[in-house]
Design goal:
single chain; five-stranded antiparallel beta sheet
């Protein structure tokens, strides 16, 4: 194997490993989107009701988003979290304190919630199904797992190529990484579109701001790394095969 192709193969493997780590960390963390809101008084009955509703398994989209807006919420692909006063439990009235210390409480999205229909008017089941937001949510949840699976399968093919001491099978690895990059890019795009459509339905309260978090950024960085790894895998395999064919033809001649 030519040193150029071996170097390209090694660089592609490193890029693939980094992108896999970034993608796995992105899927497993809760900071795809973050809200920043003023500190809430922990003696409010309204606050207690919101905390209780947020923890309920039957919380609808509007209910848990209202809590996210009010309590510095963060959202991931699997969980939603809010920050609340530490001396407060979910089902008894909190005592008023002067401390601004908070603890983070998280609730996981169930599979039923992941595939549940979104409504034109969030929280109003009689307003009709919003198909665009429904499928955007499902895609943003499924595509990262498809991307991760494609990269793992590509890694197995690359391992087989190393065992066989041939670069040609890595063309398949490159194609799988290309598809993985497209899935990651699609997931990021679906998430951005879904957030924008949600904020059109539920406007942020006054003094509340939202921004994409570092988990989202990891997914954004993962996509170009996958594309670069794909390009290197395909280039190394194709060019090495081409030179081998020309050398074989020369020897025959």
């Amino acid at each position: 194997m030519d040193n150029r192709f071996a170097t390209a193969f090694v660089i592609a493997c490193v890029l693939s490993l980094i992108s896999t780590i970034y993608m796995a960390a992105s899927i497993g963390t809760d900071f795809w989107y973050e809200y920043r809101s003023p500190v809430q008084e922990n003696s409010s009955d309204l606050n207690k009701g919101l905390w209780t509703d947020f923890a309920s398994d039957e919380a609808d989209e509007k209910t848990y988003n209202d809590a996210l807006f009010r309590y510095n919420g963060t959202v991931g692909l699997w969980r939603r979290c809010i920050s609340i006063p530490p001396n407060t439990n979910w089902y008894s009235p909190p005592e008023r304190t002067e401390s601004f210390d908070v603890v983070t409480k998280c609730m996981s999205f169930t599979l039923n919630e992941q595939f549940m229909e979104k409504f034109v008017d969030p929280g109003n089941h009689n307003s009709g199904i919003d198909l665009l937001r429904t499928y955007l949510w499902r895609c943003q949840f499924l595509l990262p797992f498809v991307s991760l699976g494609l990269m793992c399968f590509g890694a197995l093919i690359g391992l087989c190529a190393c065992i066989c001491r041939s670069l040609y099978p890595t063309i398949a690895t490159g194609i799988l990484h290309l598809l993985a990059g497209l899935c990651t890019l699609g997931s990021v795009s679906c998430y951005v579109a879904g957030i924008e459509l949600l904020h059109q339905k539920l406007e942020l309260p006054e003094n509340v701001t939202g921004e994409f978090g570092w988990s989202f950024c990891l997914a954004c960085v993962s996509a170009p790394l996958q594309f670069m790894a794909s390009a290197l895998f395909i280039w190394a395999a194709h060019t090495n095969r081409k030179e081998y064919t020309l050398m074989k033809a020369y020897r025959v001649a």
